[in-house]
Amino acid sequence: MKHVLLGISGGIAAYKSAELVRLLMRHGYIVRVVMTQAATQFITPLTFQALSGHPVHTRLLDESQENAMGHINLARWADIFLIAPASANCIAKFSHGLADDLLSTLYLAAECPVYIAPAMNQAMWHKAVTQENIKRLTQHGIMFIGPEAGSQACGETGLGRMTEPEAIVQYFTALHAAGILQGKKILITAGPTREALDPVRYISNRSSGKMGYALAEQAQLLGAEVTLISGPVQLPAINNVKIHLVESAADMHAAVMRHIAEQDVMIAAAAVADYTPDSVQPEKIKKQGEQTELNLQRTQDIVANVASLSNKPFTVGFAAETQNLEHYALDKLQRKNLDMIAANWVGQSQGGFDSDLNALHVYWHNGEKAFKMTDKTQLAKQLLTLIVERLNA
Ligand code: PMT
Fold first, then answer.
1. 47 is in which domain, residue-wise?
2. CATH code at position 170
3. What amino acid positions are annotated as catalytic residues?
């Protein structure tokens, strides 16, 4: 069951949030409510306490409520943070990182997906500064539901009405009910490649495949039809995931191209060799002298080739970096024509190659989001949720 933290800011649409709580609960969500002082002028906390079955939080420094559930705990408790209605003032505070009341402080503390259902006068909605704030929050990965057009409480007509509670609840149930990737086809590459030098030796890297396999498993659990193209790894097969085992970068390229048609998403988590020996010696290479040279040639860039297809899927690359993470990741995003890139530090004591843990900084055009160090299963869920949000955006 999902925990929804519902933030209510001051505006006449606050009355709609009573119905929203009722509908969310009817669909199995557990709801806790936070109200700004202005919101309490429009509708009483008691209404929401009665509907949600939990005390309503209204003040940042409220000793009784801090004891019951402090603001950090409240932020941690939430699986979804929904602000409905969100006033222009509340959006402006979020956009500028102000934390002068409970709602804005919770926004800063929340690490779960944040959804905003704005409600305001149409002129306030169209004001350049409001639009700049919305653009900024969108770039930080915040999702907006609405607003809708129509007649407004102030007597004007235009864009700014809060989306109706039924439509908001439908949005969430569609997102969660069938699995957020239901009906989607996803191709994932994982693991290292091996570039043969002779019958017994190869060039490779330290990728274990754990990141790519975690993505494949979680995508399948979220309802996707998953095709996994895997380099040589020591990991068990995954239920309901088609795995195609490959060895070299050329094999991986061929397998990806064979399966890419009709994919909705490609995630390139594999650590593919950038260079491969000019030729594979048919016999074991013999020792000769103190030094030797290898002639290498560039491999094909698999993810870039996918991203150049005319009917390309939503293409997500990874960037493994030991320095200048952001600079190199953005360069790859641009150069390879990707929709998104998940950058990770590698070569450090924790995370990256051959570790159960990882942290990611994800970039897309005009947006970014950081995921803290955690196990790769958890991280896979977070990345897939973000991919779905960007696909739907
Ligand atoms: O496998 P694990 O041990 O769990 O480790 C996970 C990981 C560190 C390998 C993974 O999180 C990761 O970062 N994978 C990408 C590693 C990499 O090769 O990064 P890159 O910056 O060199 O390549 C950029 C992107 O281009 C990647 O999406 C890569 O898959 C892709 N690429 C690179 C070369 C090539 N010839 N074809 C490609 O598709």
1. 3-175
2. 3.40.50.1950
3. 154
